[in-house]
Design the sequence.
């Protein structure tokens, strides 16, 4: 569904009216099985997606539908616990809406987390990857349709979409926390089926390090608005065909849960730095 700027603004105004003047500085979108971070936030307000007129509702397993406002490590956050995917039936243009609303709420950067399958065969399940770029060969852009000049230009640059500065900051935070992080290219597949082994081999040849079904529509929407993005992927499994075993969402969720303390410590350290440096 196409939305006008006024409709997006009225969704943001509705949210502002229910969150008591809370002004979030950073947005976070939590990936599959990574919603534990929400429980660390000192919550000031919480809205279910279903209660926000014009918002989308989460249907994917492991994705709650809550917009959480509160502070963590001195940073004011708005956190989407539950994200939206193309495979739920939303169009790419639909997927732009929540990110635009977060921007209208005042965020200055966006952290996106996700679960992904490791394509890079020298990596292991449990590894954390900072996204340095992505490859999206499927489907159209979230910016398909009339351009909304209020957000950005018709043709926009994506060179530094996954901000170099934020990645450097995240690497430093990881080092301080003794958390090893990798850096690589997120290869987007629309799902909901896991990829075929041949698709994964093709993705590796094309330069992908991790396979996943989310994040890129959000990152492109942010790039259109020049909103810096930090993408953090958890390798919940080796991608299809690397090991001689089938993939399952149970494996993904189990691995995500196991790695949650490391992901949470990393995000915590990052938002603390945002607060300290007034970013
Ligand atoms: N492929 C796509 N998305 C995923 C995977 C995968 O192997 N694991 C977790 N999310």
Sequence:
């Amino acid at each position: 569904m196409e939305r006008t700027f006024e409709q997006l603004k009225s969704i943001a105004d509705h949210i502002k009216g229910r969150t008591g003047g809370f002004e979030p500085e950073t947005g976070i979108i939590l990936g599959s099985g990574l919603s534990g971070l929400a429980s660390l936030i000192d919550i000031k307000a919480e809205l279910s997606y279903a209660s926000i007129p014009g918002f989308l509702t989460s249907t994917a397993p492991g994705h709650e539908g809550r917009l959480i406002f509160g502070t963590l490590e001195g940073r004011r956050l708005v956190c989407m616990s539950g994200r939206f995917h193309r495979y739920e039936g939303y169009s790419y243009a639909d997927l732009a809406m929540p990110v635009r609303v977060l921007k209208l709420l005042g965020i200055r950067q966006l952290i996106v987390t996700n679960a992904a399958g490791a394509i890079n065969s020298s990596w292991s399940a449990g590894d954390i990857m900072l996204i340095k770029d992505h490859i999206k060969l499927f489907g159209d852009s979230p910016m398909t349709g009339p351009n909304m000049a209020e957000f950005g230009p018709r043709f926009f640059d994506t060179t530094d979409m996954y901000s170099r500065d934020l990645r450097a900051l995240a690497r430093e935070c990881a080092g301080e926390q003794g958390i090893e992080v990798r850096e690589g290219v997120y290869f987007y597949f629309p799902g909901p089926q896991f990829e075929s082994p041949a698709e994964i081999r093709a993705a590796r040849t094309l330069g992908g390090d991790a396979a996943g079904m989310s994040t890129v529509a959000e990152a492109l929407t942010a790039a259109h608005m020049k909103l810096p993005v930090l993408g953090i992927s958890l390798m919940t499994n080796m991608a299809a065909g690397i090991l001689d075993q089938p993939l399952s969402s149970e494996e993904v969720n189990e691995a995500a849960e196991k790695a949650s303390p490391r992901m949470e410590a990393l995000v915590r350290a990052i938002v603390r730095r945002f607060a300290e440096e007034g970013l």
